[in-house]
Amino acid sequence: MLWVKAFHIIFVVSWFAGLFYLPRLFVNHAMATEPAEIARLKLMEGKLYRFVTPIAWLALGFGMWLWLGYGFSGGWLHAKLALVLVLIGYHYYCGRLVKQFAAGKNTRSHLFYRWFNEIPVLVLVAVVILVTVKPF
Ligand code: HEM
């Protein structure tokens, strides 16, 4: 089980690297005016999203393996899974934003994306407390 948990944590950390960095690119993109910079940001956003999506599924796959393979249960896991659904929704909304930026159709300000960037931080804090402290 410890090997499964080790890979679960490795892929969770890698997923979050993408979830922290991609909205930061959106902040810069929403402020960018130079065509060369805009083209570079479009390239980086597309590559990062395509790279981090399979990693997200590996993190979730190893989590499911832990849950279903080793009989974990409890209120903490249900609360965690609810937050994981929020995270999956956030991930795929980022995918829609990548397409909007690529089409030059972004309508939101850099300020919106600075606040948007904080959502995964809140989810991470809550999930790590739930899974390590198991408060209920
Ligand atoms: C389908 C989604 C997921 C499932 C079913 C799942 C399930 C689990 C289970 C059963 C454990 C073992 C708990 C224990 O050993 O006490 C675990 C460990 C862990 N999970 Fe997940 N997880 C999922 C997604 C996530 C996500 C998105 C995060 C990060 C935000 C995360 C962070 C962690 C951490 C840090 C541990 C190690 C806890 C420890 O060693 O005490 N998991 N997960």
From TrEMBL:
It comes from the Bacteria. GO terms for molecular function: metal ion binding; protoporphyrinogen oxidase activity. It is found in: Cell membrane. It is an enzyme of class 1 (oxidoreductase). Signal peptide: none annotated. Keywords: Cell membrane, Heme, Iron, Membrane, Metal-binding, Oxidoreductase, Transmembrane, Transmembrane helix. Pathway: Porphyrin-containing compound metabolism; protoporphyrin-IX biosynthesis; protoporphyrin-IX from protoporphyrinogen-IX: step 1/1. Catalyzes the oxidation of protoporphyrinogen IX to protoporphyrin IX. Belongs to the HemJ family. Homodimer. This is Protoporphyrinogen IX oxidase.
